[in-house]
Amino acid sequence: MHGVKLGGRGSFISDATKQKHLIESVIQPVLKRFGNERQVLAWEVINEPEWAMRIHRGKNSTQWQIPRETMQGFVKEVVRTIHALARQPATVGSAARHWLGLWQGCNLDIYQFHYYPNHESRSPLASPAARLGLSEPVVVGEFPTKSTSRSAQKHLEIVSAHGYAGALAWSMRGNDRYSDFQKAAKSMKEWREKRARKTP
Fold first, then answer.
1. CA distance 103 to 55
2. How far is CA 182 from CA 9, 103, 136, 159, 186, in A?
3. Cis peptide before 171 (omega within 30 of 0)
4. Is the CB of residue 143 less than 8 Å from the CB of residue 164?
5. Across the chain, how many H-helices and E-strands are there?
6. Of 101, 197, 196, 194, the residue nearest 151 (C-alpha)
7. How much is the pTM?
8. Where do the H-state alpha helices sit in the chain?
9. Distance from the Cα of residue 70 to its chain's centroid
10. Which of the four pLDDT bands, split at 50, 70 and 90, describes residue 63?
11. Pick from 28, 106, 112, 131: most CB atoms within 10 A?
């Protein structure tokens, strides 16, 4: 896609030698260079790893190549590297809230999940963060700004009311079916101003 190879890199997670090379040759230099930059909010180890894992994803799901223990081991190792070389927190961009439990025990500083309208039946947004029983803050790492019946302001109201630590709109520069950041920005600004008026 646009000259970028998609997929086909599972061996960098499942092969110990390749994983070590990836961490030492790519991840460590980046962390050493940017690990103290104030502009970096957090380090995301991997985005939506569940789609490449051997986990049950419901009826007619495809079983992919990487066992859950292997992916969890990779995440733990990268998190250990982040904690050694950077001051920013470590997180994983989980594809859905019902998979957050996969990342317990990986020493994450922030739990993060992505939310889209098709998640609502299994993982409704208006479900308390406390119900997850996680020890660290939980963030909605993606919510749609298009192809949804809720405004960005409504998403933020729900997230705030149910104890989540924050939310990120998808997406500032995207041109996909879920992205209309220009429209969402006005809605989010109104929400922020409304909250500011309520704060003593």
1. 13
2. 34, 33, 31, 21, 7
3. yes
4. no
5. 6, 5
6. 194
7. 0.89
8. 11-14, 16-22, 28-34, 68-85, 152-161, 181-198
9. 19
10. low
11. 112
